[in-house]
Amino acid sequence: MESCIGMIELGVGMVDLGIGMNESCVGMVESGICMVQSGIGMVWSCIGMVWSCIGMVESVIGMIELGIGMVES
CB atoms < 10 A from the CB of 33, how many? Predict the structure, then answer.
């Protein structure tokens, strides 16, 4: 009788272990996806900053040219 209960307990334990390992794998995959998305977000953020800097420089150049044009006229 004890061995029968032990086998049932072992079976339940193995099922729980399998579920736990599966959940762990899902968690690791989710974590990986989040890291990749975070990385992509950082890249886009950097690209945006570069464009902003270019825009600022162009704005300054435009203002200088506008000033020169006003002085010449």
Answer: 10
Predicted TM-score (pTM) of the model is 0.54
- CA–CA separation, 43 and 45 (whole Å): 5
Distance CA 19, CA 10 (A): 14
Residue with token string 């794998």: 25
In eight-state DSSP terms, residue 21 is H
Residue 73 is given by DSSP the state: -
- pLDDT score of 3: 85
Alpha-carbon distance 21 to 24, whole Å?
5
Give the three-state DSSP class for 1: coil
- Token pair of 4 as six digits: 């029968």
Question: What distance lies between CA 56 and its chain's CA centroid?
Answer: 28
